[in-house]
Amino acid sequence: MKISDRKVIMFAGKGGVGKTTCASATALQCANCGERVLIVSTDPTPSLIDIFNIEMTKKLTVVSDNLFVLEVSEDEIKEMWDRKFGEEVYEVFSSFVDIEYDVFVDFITSILPGLGEEFMVDYIRELAISNAYDRIIWDTAPLGQTLGLLKVPEMLYEHLRMAPRIYSHLKLGGMSKRPILDIIGGWCSLSEDNIEFLKHDVDIIIVTIPEALAVEQMERVFAEFKHFGLNISKIFINNCIEEVDSKFMRTKREQQMVHIATIKERYAHLGIYEIPLFPVEVRGIDRLNDVRATLFGEANS
Ligand SMILES: Nc1ncnc2c1ncn2[C@@H]1O[C@H](COP(=O)(O)OP(=O)(O)OP(=O)(O)O)[C@@H](O)[C@H]1O
Ligand SMILES: [Mg+2]
């Protein structure tokens, strides 16, 4: 398989299917090809460090000369969000509700699912623009409402637009004299920038396993991405049984083959790659290299 032309490769899929494993194997391949690679995890329970079997030293962990691991915790996401959007959004909300700033930030970052993801898109966009890396591999959190929140500012804006008379009478605190609609408008255009970035600069790979539930969930994931006009380029089907040495395994493989066939039929226009189920957990660079080789071939070691 050829590595993507796009600078950012995002791995998405349901919990536990092998996103981090596939992201790490792809990062290794890019690094082997001489690219300067950052693999970044936005999972609230990060495991890149475990998978690479390395010790985390600083925020940015060095795996090799040109491969770096960055795990961003929820608290850090909250802090970055606060720095970038906090004040402006607070201005809007505090014009409706009497609330302290700190309480507001805690409230909003904990209660709105997907806000961290929205911020992460923005954060990764900035990383991509900075040109610090040739390639950014983005290991996402299990998909729930991941991208749903990208649309929130727009909805809010629409809502406010419908009721200008009420809102134009609302007074903002001393911080700003900017009209609410202006502030939300700015927030909207930032969301649009992020969507544009996802559309044009990010290659999206869905990781799944050959099981009924996972295949059904993929349908929803595809619908969600399509709604935002985002293209999924490839599907990795992980944990495929290859060798059969018992009745149990044969039965299991027969079931898997039904689901693999469904995926191939339904998504015939995409690149579909099967990754074998290994008898041992994929931990450490050597094992990751086995996964890398099944995807990209042996030539690069
Ligand atoms: N092909 C494989 N063969 C054997 N074990 C695998 C394979 N792929 C992944 N694993 C193991 O399965 C477990 C889950 O994989 P991984 O952490 O990559 O999934 P994930 O989708 O990132 O999970 P989460 O949604 O929790 O982030 C790990 O212990 C990993 O070593
Ligand atoms: Mg993971």
UniProtKB/TrEMBL annotation:
A Pfam family hit: ArsA_ATPase
Taxonomic lineage of the native organism: Bacteria, Candidatus Coatesiibacteriota
InterPro entries: ArsA/GET3_ATPase-like, ATPase_ArsA/GET3, P-loop_NTPase
UniProt cross-references to CDD domains, sorted A to Z: ArsA
Organism in which the protein naturally occurs: Candidatus Coatesbacteria bacterium 4484_99
GO function terms (MF aspect): ATP binding; ATP hydrolysis activity
Domain of life: Bacteria
Similarity section: Belongs to the arsA ATPase family.
Classification via SUPFAM superfamilies: P-loop containing nucleoside triphosphate hydrolases (SSF52540)
Domain ArsA/GET3 Anion-transporting ATPase-like: residue ranges: 7-295
Protein name: ArsA/GET3 Anion-transporting ATPase-like domain-containing protein
Gene3D superfamilies (alphabetical): P-loop containing nucleotide triphosphate hydrolases
